[in-house]
Design goal:
The chain has helices spanning 2-6, 8-20, 25-29, 38-50. The chain contains 4 helices and no strands. The protein is globular and about 35 Å long.
Length: 61
């Protein structure tokens, strides 16, 4: 995960903004995220958490 250190500012900024505005997973999942930044990865994780991510195949049960 060496890439994380170089883009930590992007991640910290996105998370700080979300906390400041009281956003939840649904709010953040509806936000436009720039590619290929860490913020996009956070946004995708939020979409996965709410079950609306179209970039990840459904899990097999």
């Amino acid at each position: 995960m060496a890439w994380l250190g170089t883009q930590a500012g992007d991640m910290i900024g996105k998370i700080a903004l979300s906390i400041e505005r009281g956003a939840d997973v649904v709010d953040n999942g509806k936000t436009i995220h720039l590619l290929p930044k860490v913020g996009e990865r956070i946004g995708m994780a939020e979409e996965v958490a709410q079950g609306s991510c179209t970039d990840v195949p459904p899990s097999k049960r």
